[in-house]
Amino acid sequence: MNILAAVLLFGFIVLVHEFGHFLLAKCSGIGVVEFSVGMGPRIFSVEKGETRYSIKALPFGGSCMMVGEDSENPDPKAFNNKPVLSRIAVIAAGPVFNFILAFLFAMLIVAQIGHDAPVLTGVMEKSPAEEAGLQAGDRITRINGRHITAYRDIMLYTFSHPGQEMKVSFTRPAQEGTAGSDGATSGFVTLTPRFSEEYQSYMMGVQFGGYQRIHGIGQLIRYSAYEVKYCVTSTIDSLGMLFRHQIRADEAVTGPVGIVNMVCETVQESRQISARAVVLTLANWVLLLSSSLGIMNLLPIPALDGGRLVFLLIELVRGKPVDPEKEGMVHMAGMAVLMALMMLVLFNDIRNLM
Predict the structure, then answer these.
(1) pTM beyond cutoff 0.70
(2) Helices of type H across the chain
(3) Domain layout of the chain by residue ranges
(4) In this structure, are strands 120-123 and 206-208 parallel, antiparallel, or unpaired?
(5) 44-65: pLDDT as tens digits
(6) Which CATH class is domain 120-210?
């Protein structure tokens, strides 16, 4: 049952992504040859108008095949015959719909459990935070210029920038620093997290008291946006750590099999708590995976949405498209590399399960 739920969850996220492409294509007058959920052979399909709607055997993927998408076609409904801004909108719609989906599920989560405000409830003795002068009650607002909106942002920055000196800006309900408009005072300190043998990570030495309830639709929208921002930032930071060789590839990248396994494990754990915990666990996975899928697809990698957007932006600037044959070769090479990486990730997922 848990495996089925995980597979359906993953398929749902991909479906929303492809539906974004599909909807904008239809709105732009672009013909859609096939809209499919899954990969591999068809197990069910139905034709309606010009479009075939299909469900395929492997639930890890999907596609929205448009008329004239990869070749010249005189049909006025062909993708490449539409204005460049329309084509940009169609390609960008997939990731945008993923962010919208993530935001909607973030609203569900925040409405239920609140928000982890970056307010310190304690400072450990002889820690970098205490030595720098931070106190309980301080609200962290920035670290090295990065805007901090949640306590997890502090942990994420410390984890992704191990041992790095940090300029920490804060507000404090006291008479130190420069008076702010709300009566609080503001200031900053400089500190360097130290490695903890007990926790095997770099730590500032601060404590956090829990989640705060939100009040009103305005706070719900704002803190839900913060949740999506956190997921996007954590994805980007993980990629940065990978390229800086701070983490191994198998720690930064997980394939569908590994994701399904992790979803199953967390759902099983939450079932021992309550049905509400299961719902919130699944909602959190949708938030995380949909945000990650959105940002990964925007990377300027050939064959991904981001790679195609690069060529469309070049066309927008130049006023004429890149040679279709050359663009096709680039995307084909990118697809070959992606397929090889997918096989490597799949192998790694299966190895980790053994």
Answers:
(1) yes
(2) 2-27, 84-113, 128-132, 151-160, 216-243, 249-252, 256-271, 275-297, 305-318, 324-353
(3) 2-113+269-353, 120-210
(4) antiparallel
(5) 999 998 899 998 887 767 789 9
(6) mainly beta
